Amino acid sequence: xxxxxxxxxxxxxxxxxxxxxxxxxxxxxxxxxxxxxxxxxxxxxxxxxxxxxxxxxxxxxxxxxxxxxxxxxxxxxxxxxxxxxxxxxxxxxxxxxxxxxxxxxxxxxxxxxxxxxxxxxxxxxxxxxxxxxxxxxxxxxxxxxxxxxxxxxxxxxxxxxxxxxxxxxxxxxxxxxxxxxxxxxxxxxxxxxxxxxxxxxxxxxxxxxxxxxxxxxxxxxxxxxxxxxxxxxxxxxxxxxxxxxxxxxxxxxxxxxxxxxxxxxxxxxxxxxxxxxxxxxxxxxxxxxxxxxxxxxxxxxxxxxxxxxxxxxxxxxxxxxxxxxxxxxxxxxxxxxxxxxxxxxxxxxxxxxxxxxxxxxxxxxxxxxxxxxxxxxxxxxxxxxxxxxxxxxxxxxxxxx
Amino acid sequence: xxxxxxxxxxxxxxxxxxxxxxxxxxxxxxxxxxxxxxxxxxxxxxxxxxxxxxxxxxxxxxxxxxxxxxxxxxxxxxxxxxxxxxxxxxxxxxxxxxxxxxxxxxxxxxxxxxxxxxxxxxxxxxxxxxxxxxxxxxxxxxxxxxxxxxxxxxxxxxxxxxxxxxxxxxxxxxxxxxxxxxxxxxxxxxxxxxxxxxxxxxxxxxxxxxxxxxxxxxxxxxxxxxxxxxxxxxxxxxxxxxxxxxxxxxxxxxxxxxxxxxxxxxxxxxxxxxxxxxxxxxxxxxxxxxxxxxxxxxxxxxxxxxxxx
Lengths: 401, 309
What we know:
By secondary structure, chain A is of the alpha/beta class. Chain A contains 13 helices and 16 strands. An eight-stranded mixed β-sheet of chain B has the order 2-1-3-4-6-5-7-8, with helices on both faces.
């Protein structure tokens, strides 16, 4: 298969940018080409396989300097990334779903070693039953592994976020997942405006590791055993690293905007000024949410949407400030935390708001598991209920037969 | 052939003061291997005895850079480290010729990390993988592995009243590694220090992946007095229970041909893990089966040595 993604010329005609039609996977691969990582170790998995394929073309056509390691499993992909990142290399892999689940053990090790590995994923459900379509079960199951997590609404946002994530990861010494929804974004063609390779590379600059296993002048031991005396202290500093990551993430977003003229916030409000009821959600369904809000606004209903882009580090204060303005909030989770008191994002939101005076009424919805359709009609139905501010069941499973 | 006179002048890269049990042959092997390898060398190790006795923070026995990630990841982590080295080399950021040694016990090598090892060797990363084989999962308390010999008692293949120890012969890891078109593969044991040192040097000189399988007797797991570790190691070689040989350039070479091939009983008898075999008729049958398999493998090895001359 010829991947036209790697044949695209780079010369920008529009002030250093170029408009292209790209699928999410093509755009992520294109961003990886421009990042030009030192080492990529990856294993294919639907729906992110194309990223690895296209990137392999970049490697074999000599368009990147990357050492590409076509490993024999995702577990080895993450292990190899840990090895290369510990050896002073900007390191990336690509995965989704079962692949991320197979990496699970190593995600914690990358997090604990504070290695800034960056991973685009095409979000997909976890088996069983087997399903290749979008939901956020994979990344949310990795929530406590010490990785930053970014969720994207569009292909262009995925492209931008992946580039930004490299700088964020290196400045915070935290690994990062950048999620585009499987098939919905990974396989859908969108218009994206890309920047020049050189501009991206100059903006990122070279990777300057905190330490390097291959520095023979200063031999180090990476990954020692620690017992009751030091383990907790190591973990405490790691947690502190994530606690302090948000301002760094915001600063990088700002720098990106200054350099490239477009950007994002940690969370974004849509038509929320006088809204009485809002929905909070992440990923591609935010587009659906906008459509629903628009329709209902036409009918004079005071509804809005809050889009959360950064799941880790969770923007505690920003979320609190934003959400405490509203009377009713519906939190939409594209994953279920089986038998938890509501969806995973819902429980975080209710915890955040617990100590807020006159706290809003918060309702829990789980939608779109395994790629189940989530259309503007579904979002409208949710919003109607959120406007009322009450429902019988704790969690409403949207659109389930 | 290494010369002891010269070897003893080399810098010790695995220092004293680590927490290995008395009589631990794995610690001996690692020390000898690093002594033979010399700098610049970068080591990788899995979770296991070696990691626990050599790296408890804030102490380290390693005088060379060392990375540990997880149990099954010695070869895959080494893949990443070696890829990083190739990148730095390509970009002119590293001038030295660094050699990489990934360690793993038989659990990490034969079993849980087997896929990662196979993958790394297939990809031709230039590194030496050393299996320090003590024939069971010792770190977790002596459970069977696919390297555990037939009839041996372990805590998950106990010598019971119905089933007397492990019911399967061990996996032939050397043949599996040789089937990867590996640049160099060698099998040896700590008693034969010169053979071990020579093999390390050959393996590191090979242009591609190489593999060493080193039998490291474990006093605790095998059940023998700590001071007889080297004796156990030598008996394994002299009974041909543990054939000492190498594979290089498409040829097999037996490196330790005992003057008089001893019966396996002499190796089995001093060990607690085979004690139950010396109690009844059923035990005798098992010993006979171990002898039969040992002879079969030994004869086959001679045939291979002849056939590929």
